[in-house]
Amino acid sequence: MSRDLANLRCALPIYTVCNVIAIVAITLLSKLRLDVASFGAVFFTVPLLVVGALFTRRRGMGTASLILEVLCSGIVLSVVVLLASYLAISLDRPLVDAALADADRWLGFNAFDIVTMVNNMPVLSSMLMYAYSSFSLQLLVLPILLIVLGSPASAYTLVLSYGLAGVVASLISIWFPAVGAHISYDLASQRLPSVNLYYGYAFLSEFNAVRANSEFTLSLATAQGILTFPSVHTAVAIICTVASFGQRVLRYPVLTLNVLMLISTVTHGGHYLVDVIAGIVVATLALVTTLVIARSRIPGIVALT
Fold it and tell me: Could you give the CA distance from residue 260 to residue 129 in angstroms, rounded to a whole number?
């Protein structure tokens, strides 16, 4: 086992467990309550994955063990990031849409013009919608493919970087809550038959409720991605592309998909350009941190893994 993989294989579960402990403690002190029944599938699946990972590891089934490990941590970290985002927005700080829109204008960028242009290209608009919707599928499928194709360290890099980026984005969003460009520019009132604005508006009821209510019950069945600044979709697009770039069979399909995802964050996700820029910065910091962990010389790390 390479040192990079050994380090990441040790760091990922440690980071996951530490985040679970922290997020549970913070949630208990917050106004957030969980609809426990809605998380039933998670509570059932994660222990099975843990047992399966331990069993396959003891049996010397290396590939299966790696897949089960990254799936387990990926699922848990996705829930952690979801809870962290709701906790951040629940603090009900003043909206910063005006400042974000001003920053876009200072950069010479007008989201309405871009959405209008894409509206005149229905085929491109559909491709962008599918790309934006690929967020969860990429996080689920790419780590498995990377392990199967012989790049397990890249799979662990992807999952750990996502976990880092999601938590950092949630922390930043405490001071930058925003409803997004689609709502700010009232795109729903425009004639845009080719652009599906679903993702720019679907989160609004959850976003407003978790801010306004003195107590809010989070159900996994109705949960939405409620962060706008930084853009977590952007961070995931960068992370997935970088993690997959070493595999020739994945390199260009994943790159193409995520270039489309980056564009779709503005056209279909309702993000400001500064959201996207911030998402790139967060992804870069997460990837650099993961690289430092992978290349570090931690005594006894191979023995631990």
Answer: 9
